[in-house]
Design goal:
alpha+beta; Peptidoglycan synthesis regulatory factor (PBP3), Domain 2; five-stranded antiparallel beta sheet; 28% helix
């Protein structure tokens, strides 16, 4: 009977290694109820399913709790445990009312061990009470663009209306990872913290097994409840690329996440969708001595796209005004919005590379020829 856990662990490791080396072929099968894949640097959405659907986020909630604690408190600051915090159910590090721990150790406990009691201690230290802390959490979420998220506690324990989405969790995680202490903490496989009940310190292990099984894994947070299922926000890097995967309501979060990350690293390339020297569109110029002019992006428009995803690219033009002469070279006429799979990838200004004077009127038009001032080396092939 004692050999069963060893066999299970060995099986998990073998499965993980096989999954990592398997080439990604198209959008993978993912069993999670909702998932999203994102490029960390650009913030671009790459693929997903039900990624804007709101669901219980479980302990991925602690990402927000930790970053707020880092922003409001000093790491060596002592926080006292209240009776409310000490009686917090489920996963805990076993602190008692009246005991004290440093903010840093509490953050480590919340992020690695997913300690619910540590999260409440941090919340009370920041705002005086957990309900007031939730106000700060929701305010921060809104500022970060996680507009569909609503937090009712600091730890992710089941609560009516406590909801988020893959998209919102990515937005929160991307922000949190800009904090070096946060990023370093979630990448730790384990840590030794000072605990009032353990004179030699308490060893805690990270609940995120991707750190052990997936090459390049850098964090960030697990979560599990009956209502939420298995949840995981995962960060991995490979060849200077960093991807974030989010899965909610999964039955196999590590298998799903491995498939998603392999797909992201193996199927996407950073392509120029519209070049800055490419005539994106010709527009008519009202009252000009030259009837039309080409619109050019102010810069190259790049995005991460998969070969099969090219059909999901969409380009939208909006003009600032009705083009009328005179128009000067490099005048900004409008903007180009590029969407990939329905999500905005980039916005770039559209300019003209010609100066078009107003068309002469009356008898003077018989003596004046149209004049175009342009940079002929900058023209690309016309397109509509």
């Amino acid at each position: 009977m004692k050999r069963a856990p060893l066999l299970i662990t060995a099986g998990l490791i073998l499965w993980s290694l096989l999954a990592v080396v398997a080439p990604a072929q198209g959008t993978p099968y993912v069993g999670a109820g909702a998932w999203g894949l994102y490029d960390l640097k650009s913030g671009q959405f790459l693929d997903g399913k039900n990624y804007r659907e709101i669901r219980p986020p479980a302990s991925t909630t602690k990402i927000m709790t930790a970053i707020l604690a880092l922003e409001y408190l000093e790491l060596d600051e002592q926080a006292q445990v209240s009776q409310i915090a000490a009686s917090t159910p489920a996963t805990a590090i076993g602190v008692r009312a009246g005991q004290e721990m440093t903010v840093h150790d509490l953050i480590i406990a919340a992020l690695l061990a997913s300690a619910n009691d540590a999260s409440v201690v941090l919340a009370e230290r920041v705002a005086g009470s957990e309900p007031l802390f939730c106000y700060l959490m929701n305010k921060k979420a809104f500022v970060l663009g996680a507009v569909d998220t609503c937090f009712f506690n600091s730890n992710g324990l089941p609560a009516e209306g406590h909801l988020s989405s893959c998209h919102d969790l990515f937005m929160i995680s991307r922000y949190a990872l800009q904090n070096q202490i946060f990023a370093a903490t979630v990448a730790l496989p384990s840590a030794l913290i000072k605990h009032p009940g353990y004179p030699q310190g308490k060893q805690i292990n990270n609940t995120n097994r991707m750190l052990t099984y997936y090459p390049g894994a850098k964090g960030i947070k697990t979560g599990t409840t009956n209502a939420a299922g298995q949840c995981l926000v995962a960060l991995a890097s490979r060849e200077e690329r960093q991807l974030i995967s989010v899965v909610l309501k999964s039955g196999n979060r590590y298998g799903d996440t491995t498939s998603i990350l392999n797909y992201g690293f193996g199927s996407f390339s950073h392509d120029i969708l519209v070049g800055r020297n490419e005539t994106f569109k010709n527009i008519k110029i009202e009252g000009g001595e030259w009837p039309e002019a080409g619109l050019y992006p102010e810069r190259d428009v790049r995005a991460w796209v998969s070969e099969e995803g090219m059909v999901h690219l969409e380009k939208r033009i909006s003009l600032n005004y009705r083009p009328q002469a005179p128009i000067r070279k490099e005048d900004k006429i409008g903007s180009l919005e590029v969407y990939y799979k329905g999500e905005l990838v980039d916005i770039v200004g559209l300019t003209v590379k010609t100066t078009i004077e107003k068309r002469p009127t009356g008898i003077w038009r018989l003596f004046k020829k149209p004049r175009i001032v342009s940079d002929t080396n900058s023209f690309g092939a016309d397109s509509t």
